[in-house]
Amino acid sequence: MAHLPLIPLEPYYKTVVWGGERIAALKGEPSQGPAVGESWEVSDLGGCESVASEDAGPLAGMSLKQIMDRHAEEILGPRLYRIYGTRFPILVKLLDAASDLSVQVHPDDYLAASRHNSSGKTEFWYTLRTLPGSYIYSGLQSSTTPEKLRKHISDGTIVDLLAKFYPRHGDFFYIPAGRIHSAGAGTLLLEVQQPSDITYRIYDYKRLDLNGNPRELHTDLALEAIDFRVHEDYMRHFEPLVNREIVLKECPYFTVTVINVTNSFTLPVSRYNSFRVLVATGGSGTVTDDSGRAVRLRQGHTILVPASVRRIHITPSDGELEVLTVYIQ
User: Fold this and answer.
1) DSSP class per residue in 127-142
2) pLDDT, tens digit, for every residue of 192-211?
3) Predicted confidence band at 2 (pLDDT cuts at 50, 70, 90)?
4) Global pTM?
5) Is 201 labeled as catalytic in the residue annotation?
6) Average pLDDT of every residue of the chain
7) What's residue 3's pLDDT?
């Protein structure tokens, strides 16, 4: 199998009614506008594709879709290539909720396939930054019924049913398809998800879109998708262990880990027969592959490590570098 270089990616920025300017601040870059709510760091979805940066060698300037069309097996590895073909199997974003996101839910694989010819949308949120009073809604406080939920939607009291959390850096949320959720104003998140953009809005604070029109709600679709049970895993927190990889969440769609590096850390990529996505969630450093090629990894930026790379070495520039990684078991 050919040996591809490390692939630093430039994101697709998405302007939304609830967005702000903190993604650019996290990255140390000029503002992309006053209402950027999403930075699609790793995406091959049409119209929202990330692009290999100028540091990506011969792949520079190519979209992830173009890279996958030419090098999918080298990127994914033979095991995942047999499953996913030329489709990159995850989507990684940064989210800046300058104002409240809508209360929403996503369909599972069955509903998404039957309704939209798409995969479902299971997600993972990792808290990067918050402001005082910032909150996350995730799941139900107590089990309910579709009829009761519909009544709370119609009278604008849906949030009274939801479990509410006040996260800090290092808190994370697993949001399987069917779980109601929302991010409150002031939260800056890293999101890992299935490669789908299907959202059913349940409640949106009577907000208008960027063109001044009421935002569409999807109550009937949502009620068929919602998990009405109560679960125990709504929010979790990790305490860093220096130079140790900690698994935050493992599910059929992705595995998310975090590494806090103070000196240098060697990550065996080929052991898992999968690509690795690296996102610097705190600090900056250098990533070097097994051929000796080094690429800069700055805070808020992303590198795609092809499965054809055997191992990488992560070295912080100054102090501690926190890296979130994503792969598929």
Assistant:
1) EEE--TT--EEEEESS
2) 999 999 999 999 999 998 89
3) low
4) 0.97
5) yes
6) 96
7) 76
Strand order through the sheet with 200-203: 162-165, 136-140, 181-183, 103-105, 200-203
pLDDT exceeds 70 at position 1: no
**Whose structure tokens read 């998990």?**
227
Query: How is residue 223 written in tokens?
Result: 């009620």
Helices and strands (DSSP H and E) totals, the chain = 6, 23
Nearest Cα neighbor of 281 from 230, 234, 246, 254 is 246
198 token code pair: 């299907």
% of the chain with per-residue pLDDT over 70 = 99
From the list 70, 79, 82, 201, the catalytic residue is 201
Alpha helices per DSSP H over 95-158: 109-116, 146-154
Task: Name the strands in the sheet holding 187-193, side by side, starting at the edge strand that comes first in the sequence.
Answer: 12-20, 36-42, 91-97, 187-193, 123-129, 171-175, 236-237
Q: Which one-letter amino acid corresponds to residue 283?
A: G
Cβ atoms 283, 320 nearer than 8 A: yes
Distance CA 89, CA 74 (A): 14
Matching residue, tokens 């990529």: 269
Q: Which amino acid is at 130?
A: T
